[in-house]
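Lab notes, practical 5.
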Amino acid sequence: MKHTLSAYTALLEERGLLAAPLPETLDRSAPVELVSYDSQEVAPGTLFLCKGAHFKAEFLSMAQSKGAAAYVSETPYPEVNLPCIQVSDMRLAIAPLADLFYGHPSGQVKVVALTGTKGKSTAAYYMKYILDEYQREQNRPECGILSTITTYDGLERFESHITTPEPLELQRHLAHAVQAGMDYVVMEASSQALKYHRTLCTDFAAAAFLNIGLDHISPIEHPDFEDYFSSKLRIFAQGAVNCVNLDCDHAGRVLEAARAAGRPVITYSQKDQSAGVYAFQVRKRGGDLLFRVRTQDFQREFRLTMPGLFNVENALAAIALCQGLGIPQRCVYAGLERAKVPGRMEVYSNASGEVTAIVDFAHNRMSFENLCRSARAEYPGRRVVSVFGSVGSKAQERRKDLGEVGGRYSDLVIATEDDSEGEETLDICREIAAYVEKEGCPCAIQPNRGEAIRQAILGCREPTVLLVAGKGDETYQKRGDEYVATPTDAEYVQSFLGEYDMVHGLDGAEKVRGLLAALPLLGRYAGKRVEACCAAVARSDLLQDVSALRAVGIRAQIREGGAPAQPSDFLIFLSQEVGGRTALDRMDVSRAEELLSAADEFKKRAGKKR
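Output from the prediction step:
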């Protein structure tokens, strides 16, 4: 439903955001065709929003030339002949305007939001798997997701470059979800999104506060921990049901803020038995994690097929949210058992199991320390090698945090690139290396991330667990203002584990390499007739050998039982071993050449005797 300019100005007035009288030239009855802050997409009838610290009057002039009806701004631009709706705070104004334009979509689709220093993406994917299971039972569309990893809204699906979209994009995605007939959308709510009101006007059917730690403290993010913490606590104001982790730091304050919101609160814990969702008997069985959960409605065992003991906490967040949403426990169990998260705790091993690599997005002290502790616990006695970097231009405390944690838990660290943006990768690596070495751990520097992973894998000489942290499933490096396409860490790891196996003769390709080496030799026998006589049915390996001989021009065939049908240049007779197996030992190139040369010599001598 389209609204007139009058509806938008009334909304701003209702929220106390108008900073000046509306201009007489403003046609309040004009319908608004689009609300946008992108001058390139402006069309006639657009309400244009002047957004960002780097906004220029020329952007507004472009919007005017394309038919914008009016603009909203904290600062008037009198040089542009366009009605100005002046507001006191653009950040507070954009979300309500976006919500009005898209028809308040969060009122028509259930939005589930999660915030925390670590675990948001994993817990969000756990929720998606559970809700997909539930939706499948109802013959309904799959759940949408807006996360650090992926954006899917029913109409669009793409790799994300930001945790929480800006207000117009957020409301567009939710509107798409409504249009696609979705019932649920799971989203991550970052501290920046909550601080700067990106999620304002979005109703959360359920919200969860996972944890809090030191991160994102910088001049362009949060000036101090208090600003960071209080920003995250804002999530409770929007939740119809709020879930709190009683095991997180500052849990008392978090719980107090949740209760102050005046909505139902569900707590979860592995330590406090009074929690609404309590987990106990956590244990590993093979590659799975098993744990029992007690709630007021049920007590049962759950299974995670993703590694990482810390993921039990993320699963508890999902279980608590499902309690609030009324999702059946059978769907919760099935969803958690199936759940996989791209770029999170992805485990790969070489053929012998000597080298195990874990790819994970861990990029701050809390998440990286959890990863390291889990690796030490789950792979006792193994050498630990860590490959990671740290972002440029922000969150500079991570260099110290990651360096200290890496140095404390690793036997070797290789510092490398991780979205250096406007800084030199080598400079960031040197900063990290200084903190690693203070912990008594050697640190190598390799700015090329792919080569760093390769060196870490090919350098293994004993059972090793390799931690590749920071990028997860991302397919790019941010260099300056550009996103440069790169392989994912998982792609690097799988490729170089294959190379490791090839170097160490563990790749199962010995026969192929032997055949390739034999090709020049076999070429001398092109056009000759070779017949293999078997007393029983030929085995598959003999059939493969005959096919290979034919490929180089040798006229090879198999005779199963009896004497050869016609004269041949070479005859091979295969006897039976006990148990009926054909006695054919695979041979290397040198043995093949020896036998073929001997056969040639024998034929020459036989010819002379005739």
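Observations recorded by the TA: Residues 532 and 572 are 5 Å apart (CA to CA). DSSP finds 18 helices and 26 strands in the chain.
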